[in-house]
UniProtKB/TrEMBL annotation:
Keywords on record: Calcium, Hydrolase, Metal-binding, Signal
The name this protein goes by in its record: Sulfatase-like hydrolase/transferase
Reported cofactor(s): Ca(2+)
Membership in a protein family: Belongs to the sulfatase family.
InterPro entries, sorted: Alkaline_phosphatase_core_sf (IPR017850), Sulfatase (IPR050738), Sulfatase_N (IPR000917)
Signal peptide limits: 1-26
Residue ranges of every copy of the Sulfatase N-terminal domain listed in the record: 30-373
UniProt cross-references to Gene3D superfamilies, sorted A to Z: Alkaline Phosphatase, subunit A (3.40.720.10)
UniProt key word Signal: yes
Top-rank taxon, per record: Bacteria
Pfam family, one: Sulfatase
Length: 477
């Protein structure tokens, strides 16, 4: 049976496959639909193991396509992790290289080193709606653009430091009077789906292959959803995560304390009651977004182009929502750095599961390969197509960084986390302790593993241009 990669060569006419298939006409190249969520943890899809949440349309995508179970965000030089993630995504550069070009992102776009520009140059008709959060001009990055959204909807003082058990909640996630996702009169997730409908109608009138960048602000706070979706999740029935803590022991030293906006949404110390309420609102917004994604998937099926369309779904990073005493995404634990990553397309295995580690930004060079574009030298990330054929990951270890406050390295079995200002390290056995509850760093029997991972992390830092010096004293050397 031919491999997915050889099928892609024959089907797509990619010039750069080893079999040297002849290039097909532009009309034969696939349509590409990229659906992007915000703040979505890797374990937030029912089909992939979450028994609390209703995500029938993402479940459908996972069943009809292949899921990458270990997809990561590399980190951030900014408290706005979204900004760094999206700059990496659209520029193709690893985190510190993306930081270097961040201020010049518009020049990068003008000179053609930007995701949308590369696909336009290859003859794709490109569309965009929703959250952008890049410095490059979104209106010029795509052919058709609607409602470019900021980093997050407007928030309000009543949405912070809540809820407090036994006291009235000053804020309602379903009341449009607060604005936020309701600003403009239509929930922003519905606006994305509405524009997607328009895009499909426009694409039907053109012969070029299509690229759509459909970016939801959901599930970012303020987590607002119609009441019918909140009613699906009574707060008293929501489970408290197994790795719940009232406070993270190093919250202040790692930049996740009371001064961080994301963390101030919930009272300190965290209570099980507050965690349940926040997770309820998180799930309701997710299920509402899922319904809008269902509209997009239906539109693909109704277009008559589903056999020539690739669909990618991922998120810019995850979110803690009460795990480890944290609420936001500015931390190195899997709930915050790991995301869902779903792929559906011609020849993709239905119900497939790939455990090889990837970065979420690998979606960009994957689409370039599908479009018949040779990967430019400035693109650091890698196509995931070989991994669906059984190849090994291009990343033997996964790197993580946040400001100068956190560093991490992940192998298949272990994760070493370094908190320089807290003067401490943590070690977790990810195979036996996936919720990262049992820190092994102080165990003398693990000293050699800590030392080895620390050395590998330093090597990674050098290769990635990370200038933060991690003193050997952190591991007692």
């Amino acid at each position: 049976m031919p491999s997915l990669r050889s099928l892609a060569c024959l089907f797509l006419g990619t010039l750069f496959c080893v079999f040297g298939s002849p290039q097909l006409t532009a009309d034969d190249r696939p349509n590409i639909i990229f659906i992007f969520a915000d703040d979505l943890c890797f374990d937030s899809i029912a089909e992939l193991g979450n028994e609390e949440v209703e995500t029938p349309n993402l479940d459908r995508l996972a069943r009809e396509g292949t899921s990458f179970s270990h997809a990561y965000n590399m980190g951030s030089w900014s408290g706005a992790v979204c900004l760094a993630s999206r700059t990496m995504l659209n520029s193709g550069r690893f985190v510190w290289q993306a930081k270097e070009i961040y201020q010049q992102s518009e020049r990068e776009r003008e000179e053609g080193r930007w995701w949308g520009e590369m696909l336009k140059a290859a003859g794709y008709r490109t569309y965009m709606t929703g959250k952008w959060h890049c410095r490059a001009n979104a209106q010029k990055s795509f052919d058709v653009v609607r409602d470019v959204r900021p980093g997050m909807p407007k928030d309000f003082p009543e949405g912070y430091n809540r809820p407090i058990e036994g006291q009235p909640d000053p804020w309602s996630p379903s009341d449009p009077k607060w604005g936020g996702f309701w600003e403009g009169g239509t929930h922003w997730s519905e606006v994305v789906a509405n524009h997607a409908d328009d895009f499909f109608a426009d694409a039907a009138e053109h012969d070029e292959p299509t690229f759509m960048y459909l970016a939801f602000n959901a599930t970012h706070d303020p987590r607002q959803a119609p009441q019918e979706f909140l009613d699906k999740y009574p707060a008293e029935q929501i489970l408290v995560p197994q790795n719940y803590q009232p406070l993270h022991p190093y919250a202040e030293e790692i930049g996740c304390g009371r001064s961080l906006r994301d963390e101030r949404l919930m009272p300190f110390p965290r209570t099980e009651y507050a965690v349940r309420v926040h997770r309820r609102e998180y799930y309701a917004l997710l299920t509402h977004m899922d319904a809008m994604i269902g509209r997009i998937l239906d539109a693909v099926d109704e277009s008559g182009e589903s056999d020539n369309t690739w669909i990618f779904f991922t998120a810019d990073h995850g979110l803690a929502v009460g795990q480890h005493g944290l609420l936001g995404k500015q931390n190195p634990y899997d709930h915050s750095v790991r995301v869902p990553f779903l792929v559906k397309g011609p020849g993709v295995k239905a119900g497939g599961r790939v455990k090889e580690p990837v970065y979420l930004q690998d979606v960009m060079p994957t689409t370039l390969e599908l479009a018949g574009i040779e990967k430019p030298t400035h693109v650091d990330f890698h196509s995931v197509l070989p991994l669906m054929d059984g190849a090994r990951s291009a990343y033997p270890t996964i790197y993580g960084a946040y400001l100068d406050l956190q560093r991490s390295i992940r192998t298949e079995q272990y994760k070493l986390i370094v908190f320089p200002k807290a003067k401490t390290v943590q070690l977790f056995d990810m195979l036996n302790d996936p919720l990262e509850q049992h820190d092994l760093a102080a165990n003398p029997a693990m000293a050699a593993i800590v030392k080895d991972l620390f050395g590998q992390l330093q090597t990674l830092q050098t290769s990635l241009g990370d200038e933060l010096v991690l003193p050997a004293e952190l591991i007692g050397s």
